[in-house]
Amino acid sequence: MPFAQKLIAWQRRHGRRDLPWQGTRDPYRIWLSEVMLQQTQVATVIPYYERFLQKYPSVDALAEASEDEVLRLWSGLGYYARGRNLLRAAKDVASRGQFPDTAGGISELPGVGRSTAAAIAVFAFGRRAAILDGNVKRVLARCFGVEGEAQLWGLAERLLPKRRLEAYTQALMDLGARVCVRGTPKCRQCPVESMCYARANGLVERLPARRPRKALPLRRTTWLVLRHAGEVLLERRPGSGVWGGLWSFPERSRAPAAACRELLGYELARTRRLQPIEHGFTHFRLHIRPVLCEVARRAPRAQSPGYSWIDVARAGDAALPAPVRRLLAAIAAR
Fold it and tell me: What span, in angstroms and rounded, lies between the C-alpha atoms of 221 and 288?
């Protein structure tokens, strides 16, 4: 039995069929799920997906949202450029009047790459298109002993069956996510174990070849946690870069009292260093030194756009990075 037919048969018995974005041809729902699933596990995505649909049940509803509203719902899911691109793409689709129905057309939407576009085209429109996300690369590299982006794409396209494209595509996703996993694959549960090149040659742990892991550089920053009359001061971050468009604490390298006085016009009653925070990103680690700054007197300088005083108890409703949210929860609990 060919590779694709083995996967389709396995999917019928063992595949996932109860995910909230399955059983629909609605391209909006499928697109939303595929974007959220980029570099994020299914269990993490499901509650975000359900909240998004409750707030924005259609692409037209999402197109009317503000970036701040979208990022607030996205807060904690990470990779925030996805949320900003989601809004841009929704506005694009709404202006066209319909969702593009080919993999090529879908890939032109902001934040949608070749593999994501193919998945949407298959599940929403029944198109014949090959996916090649990280999990699928691992399955194909191990099973066929092939590596390299171009070679894997060629293989993925040659393996496409003539029928049952949706079942085959879902089977690839499920096999990579649940059986042919990175750490200790469950080879005995694999429907293509008998034809697996890596299994036959003792190369399961070596295929695909892992890139040498580089030590992540460490960056340091100081957060000024300004508090006055039960409120904290938040600063909106630039649209690009880390946590783009989200609200965070002002970051300053100078001494807290001098920074607050000269940059914001505030006089502090006292300061206290809080427990340092470590946060990991893809390309670096961030060491955060929060300093709680009790403000003696407010000045109008920080009332300009880009700053906002927010009640500590309600600050969690804003679009916040996860470390900011956790720190605010700790402050509120005190």
Answer: 5
Question: Would you name the residues annotated as active-site residues?
Answer: 34
Contact 36, 77 (CB under 8 A): yes
What distance in Å separates the CA atoms of residue 136 and residue 309, rounded to the nearest whole number?
Answer: 46
Distances (CA, A) of 114 to 41, 88, 146, 153: 20, 18, 20, 10
In the chain, where does DSSP find H-type helix? 3-14, 27-36, 42-55, 59-63, 67-74, 81-96, 103-106, 114-125, 134-144, 149-158, 165-178, 197-200, 256-259, 322-333
Closest Cα to residue 316, out of 260, 204, 234?
A: 234
- Read off the tokens for 15: 């595949």
pLDDT, one tens digit per residue, over 256-271 is: 777 787 767 788 889 9
Q: Which amino acid is at 316?
A: G
Q: Which among 202, 249, 247, 245 is positioned nearest to 224, based on CA atoms?
A: 249
CA 148 – CA 155 distance, rounded (Å): 11
Whether this prediction's pTM lies above 0.85 is answered by: yes
pLDDT in tens, 142-176: 999 999 999 999 999 999 999 999 999 999 999 99
Tokens standing for 315?
């600050």
Domains of the chain: 3-200 (1.10.340.30), 218-333 (3.90.79.10)
